[in-house]
Design brief:
The chain is α+β, with helices and mostly antiparallel strands and 178 residues long. Helix content is 56%, strand content 13%. It has 6 helices and 5 strands; from the N terminus they run H-H-H-H-E-E-E-H-E-E-H.
Length: 178
């Protein structure tokens, strides 16, 4: 039981990543609450509470999936993943799309860092903290929009996604990648 309480934040975080995860978490939470509060109630009351909780979960699930099927809200950037990207994010995306393996490496060593892809180091002054912060922000922008995906658990290796290739092609003057 102690292990459950220690890993509870990770379970909640993982469940919050998808609508089905949220729904499953809601079902489990309501089951536990229902048991705690109504364990000593009569059978008729327990059945009534079960029906109400079950109906509530069904209504919540239907409403949640209807909202997701409605598509992105007007004015959102979904469908135009490279709109509003910073200049550095555009540069990083285009350079990564040209890399034969599609890799972006953000290497941390000692007090220094390096960001490179396609044989090009994008951090020309590794000791200028403002430049490092700008390129780190560009990298995070691309990850947040699903244009790059992290590989491994150290935050040093990224790979361009299909969505990233499409965005890079759409920002190219020819509409194709080199």
């Amino acid at each position: 039981m102690d292990q459950l309480f220690k890993s509870l934040p990770d379970i909640i975080k993982a469940a919050a990543q998808s609508q089905l995860g949220i729904l499953a978490l809601l079902v489990v939470a309501l089951s536990i609450l229902g048991y705690v509060f109504f364990a000593k109630a009569t059978v008729n009351i327990r059945v009534g509470i079960f029906v109400l909780l079950f109906g509530g979960v069904i209504v919540f699930g239907v409403a949640m999936f209807r909202a997701s099927d409605a598509g992105p809200p007007p004015g959102s950037r979904a469908g135009a993943p490279n709109v509003g990207l910073s200049k550095e994010a555009h540069t990083l995306l285009a350079t990564a799309a040209s890399d034969p393996g599609g890799y972006v490496l953000y290497e941390k060593f000692g007090a220094s860092v390096d960001l490179h892809t396609n044989g090009v180091s994008l951090l020309t002054d590794k000791f200028d903290h403002r430049a490092v912060a700008t390129w780190e922000s560009a990298l995070q922008e691309l990850v947040d929009r699903g244009l790059l995906a992290a590989r491994g658990d150290r935050g040093e290796v990224y790979v361009i996604t299909q969505k990233g290739y499409e965005a890079a092609a759409s920002q190219s003057p020819t509409g194709r990648l080199p």
